[in-house]
Design a protein that fits this description.
The longest helix has 18 residues. This protein has an eight-stranded antiparallel β-barrel. The protein contains one helix and nine strands. The radius of gyration is 20 Å and the shape is elongated. The protein has a single domain, classed as Porin. With 201 residues, it is mainly beta. A hairpin with a 4-residue loop joins strand 7 and strand 8.
Length: 201
Protein backbone atom coordinates (compact mmCIF):
# COMPACT_ATOMS: atom_id res chain seq x y z
CA UNK A 1 0.00 0.00 0.00
CA UNK A 2 2.80 2.41 0.89
CA UNK A 3 4.51 1.57 -2.43
CA UNK A 4 1.28 2.28 -4.32
CA UNK A 5 0.84 5.66 -2.63
CA UNK A 6 4.47 6.59 -3.30
CA UNK A 7 4.13 5.66 -7.00
CA UNK A 8 0.88 7.63 -7.19
CA UNK A 9 2.60 10.70 -5.72
CA UNK A 10 5.48 10.44 -8.20
CA UNK A 11 3.06 9.95 -11.10
CA UNK A 12 1.09 13.04 -10.03
CA UNK A 13 4.21 15.17 -9.93
CA UNK A 14 5.30 13.93 -13.36
CA UNK A 15 1.84 14.64 -14.78
CA UNK A 16 1.96 18.19 -13.46
CA UNK A 17 5.45 18.63 -14.86
CA UNK A 18 4.44 17.47 -18.33
CA UNK A 19 1.19 19.46 -18.42
CA UNK A 20 2.94 22.69 -17.44
CA UNK A 21 6.12 22.28 -19.43
CA UNK A 22 6.16 25.96 -20.40
CA UNK A 23 6.06 27.23 -16.82
CA UNK A 24 9.31 29.02 -15.77
CA UNK A 25 11.36 26.91 -13.38
CA UNK A 26 13.54 27.97 -10.49
CA UNK A 27 15.76 25.82 -8.31
CA UNK A 28 17.18 26.46 -4.88
CA UNK A 29 19.40 25.19 -2.11
CA UNK A 30 18.27 25.36 1.52
CA UNK A 31 19.55 24.69 5.00
CA UNK A 32 16.79 23.66 7.41
CA UNK A 33 17.11 23.70 11.21
CA UNK A 34 14.42 22.51 13.57
CA UNK A 35 13.48 21.12 16.93
CA UNK A 36 10.67 18.91 18.06
CA UNK A 37 9.14 16.73 20.72
CA UNK A 38 8.71 12.99 20.26
CA UNK A 39 5.51 12.36 22.20
CA UNK A 40 4.44 8.90 21.06
CA UNK A 41 6.33 5.59 21.09
CA UNK A 42 4.46 2.46 20.02
CA UNK A 43 6.03 -0.98 19.99
CA UNK A 44 4.42 -3.97 18.27
CA UNK A 45 5.82 -7.46 18.76
CA UNK A 46 4.82 -11.06 18.19
CA UNK A 47 7.22 -14.00 18.47
CA UNK A 48 7.51 -17.62 19.50
CA UNK A 49 9.93 -18.62 22.23
CA UNK A 50 11.88 -21.87 22.07
CA UNK A 51 9.62 -23.42 24.72
CA UNK A 52 6.60 -22.92 22.45
CA UNK A 53 5.21 -19.86 24.25
CA UNK A 54 3.94 -17.14 21.96
CA UNK A 55 4.27 -13.57 23.18
CA UNK A 56 2.68 -10.56 21.57
CA UNK A 57 1.66 -7.03 22.42
CA UNK A 58 1.15 -3.47 21.20
CA UNK A 59 2.17 -1.16 24.04
CA UNK A 60 2.18 2.60 23.43
CA UNK A 61 3.88 5.16 25.62
CA UNK A 62 3.38 8.91 25.76
CA UNK A 63 6.61 10.72 26.46
CA UNK A 64 8.39 14.05 26.23
CA UNK A 65 11.64 13.56 24.30
CA UNK A 66 13.18 16.71 22.73
CA UNK A 67 15.19 16.29 19.54
CA UNK A 68 16.52 18.37 16.66
CA UNK A 69 17.40 18.11 12.99
CA UNK A 70 19.68 19.76 10.43
CA UNK A 71 18.94 19.15 6.76
CA UNK A 72 20.35 20.28 3.43
CA UNK A 73 17.73 20.48 0.71
CA UNK A 74 17.85 20.89 -3.08
CA UNK A 75 14.52 21.85 -4.61
CA UNK A 76 12.99 22.81 -7.93
CA UNK A 77 9.64 24.25 -8.99
CA UNK A 78 8.01 21.64 -11.21
CA UNK A 79 4.99 23.85 -11.89
CA UNK A 80 3.71 27.25 -10.86
CA UNK A 81 2.27 25.83 -7.61
CA UNK A 82 4.30 22.68 -6.92
CA UNK A 83 7.84 22.36 -5.63
CA UNK A 84 9.76 19.08 -5.34
CA UNK A 85 12.81 18.71 -3.10
CA UNK A 86 15.35 16.08 -2.07
CA UNK A 87 16.98 16.37 1.34
CA UNK A 88 19.39 14.70 3.72
CA UNK A 89 21.27 15.53 6.89
CA UNK A 90 21.15 14.56 10.56
CA UNK A 91 17.96 13.99 12.55
CA UNK A 92 17.05 12.96 16.07
CA UNK A 93 14.23 10.45 16.49
CA UNK A 94 14.06 9.63 20.19
CA UNK A 95 16.41 9.10 23.12
CA UNK A 96 19.89 8.05 21.90
CA UNK A 97 18.60 7.36 18.39
CA UNK A 98 19.84 9.50 15.50
CA UNK A 99 19.46 8.88 11.79
CA UNK A 100 20.78 10.05 8.44
CA UNK A 101 17.60 10.62 6.39
CA UNK A 102 17.09 10.69 2.63
CA UNK A 103 13.63 11.98 1.77
CA UNK A 104 11.58 13.58 -0.99
CA UNK A 105 9.23 16.46 -0.18
CA UNK A 106 6.40 17.79 -2.30
CA UNK A 107 5.15 21.31 -1.43
CA UNK A 108 1.97 22.97 -2.68
CA UNK A 109 1.65 26.77 -2.81
CA UNK A 110 -1.95 28.04 -3.23
CA UNK A 111 -0.57 31.18 -4.90
CA UNK A 112 2.66 30.47 -6.75
CA UNK A 113 6.00 29.07 -5.64
CA UNK A 114 7.72 32.40 -6.31
CA UNK A 115 5.45 34.45 -4.04
CA UNK A 116 5.39 34.90 -0.29
CA UNK A 117 2.68 33.04 1.55
CA UNK A 118 1.56 29.77 3.04
CA UNK A 119 2.17 26.27 1.71
CA UNK A 120 1.54 22.64 2.64
CA UNK A 121 3.94 19.77 2.23
CA UNK A 122 4.09 15.98 2.27
CA UNK A 123 7.37 14.11 2.69
CA UNK A 124 8.48 10.50 2.60
CA UNK A 125 11.63 8.45 2.43
CA UNK A 126 14.04 6.40 4.45
CA UNK A 127 16.82 6.82 6.95
CA UNK A 128 19.60 4.80 8.51
CA UNK A 129 20.65 4.93 12.15
CA UNK A 130 24.03 6.58 12.64
CA UNK A 131 25.53 3.23 13.66
CA UNK A 132 24.21 1.82 10.33
CA UNK A 133 22.38 -0.97 12.18
CA UNK A 134 18.75 -0.28 11.25
CA UNK A 135 16.75 1.33 8.46
CA UNK A 136 13.67 3.46 9.11
CA UNK A 137 10.70 4.50 6.99
CA UNK A 138 9.97 8.21 7.41
CA UNK A 139 6.90 10.31 6.72
CA UNK A 140 6.08 13.93 7.42
CA UNK A 141 3.15 16.26 6.80
CA UNK A 142 3.10 19.94 7.58
CA UNK A 143 2.26 23.56 6.96
CA UNK A 144 4.57 26.48 6.32
CA UNK A 145 4.86 30.12 5.37
CA UNK A 146 7.48 31.72 3.12
CA UNK A 147 8.97 35.17 3.57
CA UNK A 148 11.20 36.83 0.98
CA UNK A 149 14.38 38.39 2.35
CA UNK A 150 15.81 39.51 -1.00
CA UNK A 151 15.57 38.64 -4.68
CA UNK A 152 17.56 35.45 -4.17
CA UNK A 153 16.89 34.49 -0.55
CA UNK A 154 13.79 33.51 1.40
CA UNK A 155 12.93 32.14 4.82
CA UNK A 156 10.44 29.31 5.34
CA UNK A 157 8.77 28.77 8.71
CA UNK A 158 7.25 25.30 9.16
CA UNK A 159 5.21 23.24 11.61
CA UNK A 160 4.99 19.49 11.01
CA UNK A 161 4.17 16.02 12.28
CA UNK A 162 6.68 13.24 11.58
CA UNK A 163 6.32 9.49 11.94
CA UNK A 164 9.20 7.00 11.90
CA UNK A 165 8.89 3.23 11.55
CA UNK A 166 11.69 0.88 12.60
CA UNK A 167 11.72 -2.90 12.02
CA UNK A 168 14.09 -5.09 14.01
CA UNK A 169 15.35 -8.63 13.46
CA UNK A 170 16.08 -9.35 17.10
CA UNK A 171 13.99 -9.52 20.28
CA UNK A 172 15.03 -8.20 23.69
CA UNK A 173 14.35 -11.48 25.47
CA UNK A 174 16.63 -13.68 27.63
CA UNK A 175 15.57 -16.57 25.44
CA UNK A 176 17.44 -17.04 22.15
CA UNK A 177 14.65 -16.38 19.65
CA UNK A 178 15.42 -17.48 16.06
CA UNK A 179 14.76 -14.88 13.39
CA UNK A 180 12.21 -17.11 11.65
CA UNK A 181 10.14 -17.17 14.85
CA UNK A 182 9.84 -13.37 15.02
CA UNK A 183 6.57 -12.49 13.31
CA UNK A 184 6.33 -8.81 14.16
CA UNK A 185 8.90 -6.54 15.77
CA UNK A 186 8.57 -2.85 15.00
CA UNK A 187 8.52 0.54 16.63
CA UNK A 188 6.59 3.63 15.49
CA UNK A 189 7.26 7.10 16.86
CA UNK A 190 5.32 10.36 16.50
CA UNK A 191 6.97 13.79 16.65
CA UNK A 192 5.77 17.38 16.30
CA UNK A 193 8.38 19.86 15.07
CA UNK A 194 8.98 23.53 14.35
CA UNK A 195 11.65 24.45 11.82
CA UNK A 196 13.05 27.24 9.67
CA UNK A 197 14.79 26.97 6.31
CA UNK A 198 16.99 29.56 4.65
CA UNK A 199 16.71 29.20 0.88
CA UNK A 200 18.99 30.51 -1.87
CA UNK A 201 18.07 30.43 -5.54
Amino acid sequence: MRGFLFNLLIFSFLSIFISEAKTPRTAGLSAEWGGGITFLDCYSFSYLRTDGTRLKGNPCTFLFNPNAHLLIKYDADISSQWNLSVMSGYEGIYDRTRIIPLTVRGSYFPGTCSREGRFWFLEGGTGVKTDFSTLAALGRIGWGKRFHLSEITSLDFMVSYRSALFKYDHIDDPDEVPVDQIYTNRKITGTVSISVALRFQ
